[in-house]
Amino acid sequence: MVTIKESGERFAKEYSIRGTSKRTVQELFIANEFRDEEAEFAFCGQKGSEEFLCKENVNVLEKVMASSLRKLHKSRNKAMHIYREYLRYACDLSGEDINVNWNRIEAMISTPDESSDRLERQINFILEADRIKSIFRQTYIASGERKENDAEHSWHLALMAYLLKEYANADVNLEKVMLMVLIHDMVEIDAGDTYAYDEEGYITKAARERAAADRIFGILPENQGEYLKGLWEEFELGQSMEAKYANSLDRMQPMLLNGATQCKSWEEHEVTYDKVCKRFSLVKDGSEVLWARGQRIIDENRAKLSDT
Fold first, then answer.
1. Number of neighbouring beta carbons within 10 Å of residue 167
2. 44: phi then psi, degrees, rounded to nearest 5
3. What is the per-residue pLDDT across 136-165, written as a single tens digit (0 to 9) for each?
4. Which residues, listed in sequence order, are joined to residue 24 by a DSSP beta bridge?
5. What is the dihedral of CA 189, 192, 195, 199, to 10 degrees?
6. What backbone torsions phi and psi does residue 143 show, to the nearest 5 degrees?
7. Is-above-0.90 flag for pTM?
8. Residue 140 forms beta bridges with which residues?
C-alpha cells in the first residue's frame, strides 16, 4: 500500500499529459507551466499526505488535493484536469475505486465571493433546467391522453436505469448512467426536440445541439459544467458501456409507450416497420435482453406499421 504522497510522486514522474508534447506532470512543474513555484503535485508538505491511499482515506485525499490546489489560483482549471487524470491513476495504483467529491474540493478552495457566485450559477442552471418541462416529444404517455415532455421522459429513463440494470450487457456505473439520462435532452431547451424519424431535422440536429450544450452547461460553475457536458458528449458518442446502456433505455422507453398506446405516435407519422427495427437495433449494444423484449413489441404491432 502506498501513501498519498508516494502516489503523487509516481504519477508526476510517470504520467504524460496529452497535448503537451508528452511531457510528464513533473516536467510541466519544472517548466513552470503553472507559474507557481510553491506548487507540488507530489503533495509534499501537505497535511495528511503521509496517510495511505485507500477508500477509507478519501476525505484526507480531498483535503490534500484542496490544499495543493489553493496554491494554483492562476492555473487552477488546468490543474484540475491533471488532478482528474491523477485520480484514475490512483484507482489503478491502489486497486480500489476511489471517488472524491469534486464539489467539496471546490468549496474548500473557493473564496467567499467565489462560493457565492458558484451558488448563484447553480441556481440559475436549476431554473434554466425547468424549461425542459415545456419541450414536448412525439411519444404519447401510456394512457394515450397527451404527449410526454422531455422532463417526464428523462425521469422515466432514470427510473428504468435503476430497475433494469441487471439486464445491461456489462456492469455499469449506475450513478453515472442516471445522471447521463437526466441531462441528455437538456440541449433541447434551445435545439428543440428532433423526432427520431425526422430525416430532414437530423441534418442540422448535431450543430443545433452542440451550440445548445455550450450555452446551457456553460451556465454552471466550470467544473460542473464541463462534467455534465462531458456526460452529454459521452451519451451522444455511445461508445462507453454506460452510454450504450443509456442509449438502450432511450430507445426502449418510447418502444414501451408505443406498445401501450397501440402505436399511436408511429401511426400518426406513418413510420415503417423497417425504420423502427433499424432504430431499435442499437438497443442490443447495451442490453440484448431489452432488445429481444422490444423486438417482440414491434413484431406484435407490425400490422399497425407502414410497409412503405
1. 17
2. -55, 130
3. 999 999 999 999 999 999 999 999 999 999
4. 16
5. -140
6. -75, -15
7. no
8. 147
Residue 265: phi and psi, rounded to 5, are: -70, -45
Q: Are strands 136-140 and 147-149 parallel, antiparallel or unpaired?
A: antiparallel
With b meaning 16 or more CB within 10 Å and e meaning fewer, what string describes 268-285?
A: eeebebebbeeebeebbb
Half-sphere exposure of 94 (CA within 13 A, CB side): 25
Neighbouring-strand partners of residue 136: 149
* Sequential DSSP letters for 232-284: HHHHHHT-SHHHHHHHHHHHHHHHHHHHHTTTHHHHHTT-BHHHHHHHHTTHH
| Rounded Cα distance, 196 and 266, in Å | 11
For residue 287, count other CB atoms closer than 10 A to its CB: 23
The C-alpha angle 257, 259, 262, rounded to 5 degrees, equals: 105
Q: Return the amino acid letter for 136.
A: F
Residues making up the chain, counted from first to last: 308
Q: Which ranges in 76-200 belong to alpha helices (H)?
A: 76-94, 102-109, 112-129, 150-163, 174-183, 188-191
Cell of 290: 431489452
Per the DSSP assignment, residues forming a β-bridge with 3 are 52
Nearest to 64 by CA among 86, 92, 81, 97: 86
Distance CA(25)–CA(192), nearest Å, equals 42
Q: What is the mean pLDDT of residues 44-49?
A: 72
For residue 32, the SS3 value is coil
Task: Estimate to the nearest angstrom the gap between the alpha carbon of 104 and the chain centroid.
Answer: 19
Q: Bridge-partner residues for 80, per DSSP?
A: none
Q: In whole angstroms, how far apart are CA 275 and each of 118, 204, 264, 268?
A: 45, 20, 16, 15
CATH number of 130-304: 1.10.3210.10
The DSSP code for 136 is E
pLDDT, tens only, 238-257:
999 999 999 999 999 999 99
Q: What residues form DSSP beta bridges with 16?
A: 24
